[in-house]
Amino acid sequence: MLRVEKLDTFYEEFQVLRKVSISINEQELVVLFGPNGHGKSTLLKTICGLLTPVSGSIKYNDVEITKLTTKNIVEMGITYVAEERNLFPQLTVLENLKLGAYNVNARQKEEENLAYVFELFPKLKDRTKQSASTLSGGEARMLAMGRGLMSNAEFLAIDEPSLGLAPNLRIEVLNQISEINQRGVSILLVEQSSPKALDIADRIYLMEEGEIAFQGNKEEALNGNYFKEAFLGM
Amino acid sequence: MLRDLIEVLISGITNGSVYAIMAAGMTLVYGVTRVFNFAYGSFFTLGGYFAWLFFGLKFNYLLVFVSIIPIMFLVGLSAETFIIRPLRARKDWEILSVMVTLGLALFLDNLYLVIFGPFVKSIPSLFEGYVKIQGFVISIHDIAIVTIAISIMVILMLFLSRSRQGLAMRAVAQDMTGAEIVGIPKDRVFAYTFALSAILVGAGSMLLAPKYFVSPAGGFDILVKSWVITVFGGVGSIRGSLFAAFILGIVEAIVGFTFGLTWTLIAWFVVLLFTLIVRPQGLFGTEA
């Protein structure tokens, strides 16, 4: 479904991504692990059009999307849920969600998707008239995820959704992501190392220093010492 | 004495209502596009000159109003698309956009001088005549100005809070990356915001021109006043512009009446200074 080939992205003169190649198949939940600052967010941002790569290609359903604007990429069905969340602070929860459905494909499904978001995140339903800046960390992450779902995306690129949350909330968020995936949305998830994240993944990539250092499924990850020691601390 | 004060207040409120429209345009542009449009006053003057041209062609008031809107829309749209957008790719776009809009202002103001000459142009009032209320004399045109101006503000505020495009504008002002993430076409929003601000300032020009005439130098005053109101009300806050515009319109009228008209511009600068020192975010400032 999504094929990234030999992507090079720079931040000013500094090369962040080095010939990165990954792929996600339909309905897969692929998790990208790796130390902070090694390019995971940059990869997601490049895929979603927020950053432009210097070389390489990104294909979605065999269509070249490398040079497209984020608006076009969203219309094709790919939505980014940022680590920084990037919510609209002075707008209400409901207004944030409605803006999630801004793209043309999402507008007809707005009511349906809104109902689904409230079902998944009942806390948001209680706070529809609250402005986004007054939400707690966990609620803000839910809103960011909910807003992403409103876009009617077939493919979600989710960046560290459990960052800064208490352990029980972290598990809950990952469960919700797994549920979204069960419903048919393909997901590329960037996450901190955790057994839970490993558990929900279909396949795993490990990124270090802007390169893919490991790829495989759960069994391969657990059987290979490198991954276990370096990353899960086992 | 009281009578004079009341008449001064009425004058202040009348001007304030129009200042509100124009400040709203400026606060929108700065909040959404992060560009300070130095040519804002020149757009104001342009609206006035087009109105004068159309009245010269014997258009009636309504027709002039309706014709000015698409023209100002195109002016704002073109300015953003052809002059400012190319700059955004560069690192120093903020400084460059200031220089470029300043250059545009100088160019336009001198263009007006060349084409229309230095003498002021006048526009007929919407209504002639006065009403007497409790012994106070109020011109019907002033009542019309306040009514029209407030209606425009109400429409603007409804647009921003209820319509999808209005919401999109506010989103871009609050978090540009977030707006991109949900698929809002940032560039188009920038252009439309500029266009909207041009319409607002053009409408303001039409409302004020019968009383204050159109001249090549008039734009500078409007630029300063709009900016002071924007800062005092809080950059990015339409509600702030509304309150600030009325307050400052009344202050200006009182200062003008008490000390003379030459002191009014100084009063504006004093308010600006006061705001920056005491409460830099302005009355309602948060959005941008």
Textual characterization of the structure:
The complex is a heterodimer of chains A (234) and B (288). Helices cover 39% and strands 26% of the residues of chain A. Chain A has helices spanning 40-47, 70-76, 93-100, 104-107, 110-120, 122-126, 137-149, 167-182, 195-200, 218-223, 225-232, and strands at residues 2-11, 14-24, 29-33, 55-60, 63-64, 78-81, 155-159, 186-190, 203-208, 211-216. In chain A, the strands form two sheets. A six-stranded mixed β-sheet of chain A has the order 6-7-8-3-9-10, with helices on both faces. A four-stranded antiparallel β-sheet of chain A has the order 2-1-4-5, with helices on one face. Chain A is globular and about 45 Å long. Chain A starts with a strand and ends with a helix. Chain B is mostly helical. Chain B has one domain (16-217). Chain B has helices at residues 2-33, 40-56, 61-84, 93-116, 140-162, 164-174, 176-181, 186-212, 218-233, 238-259, 264-278; strands spanning 130-133, 136-139. In chain B, strand 1 (130-133) and strand 2 form a beta hairpin. Chain B is globular and about 60 Å long. Classes of the chains: A alpha/beta (234), B mainly alpha (288). The interface between A and B is medium-sized, with 27 and 18 residues.
| Cα distance spanning the termini of chain A | 33 Å
How many whole angstroms does the radius of gyration of chain B measure?
A: 19 Å
Order of helices and strands of chain A: EEEHEEHEHHHHHEHEHEEHH
Which overall shape of chain A is indicated by the principal axes computed on the Cα atoms? globular
Helix content estimate of chain A:
25-40%
The number of helical elements of chain B comes to 11
* Strand order across the largest sheet of chain A: 6-7-8-3-9-10
What is the percentage of strand-forming residues of chain A?
A: 25-35%
Rg of chain A: 17 Å
How large a portion of the residues of chain B is in β-strands, by DSSP E? under 5%
Instruction: Detail the poorly predicted runs of chain A.
Output: none
Report the average pLDDT across residues of chain A.
88
Helical residue percent band of chain B: over 70%
Categorize the overall geometry of chain B.
Answer: globular
Assembly state: heterodimer
What integer is the average pLDDT of chain B?
A: 89
Structural class of chain A: alpha/beta
| Main sheet: strand order of chain B | 1-2
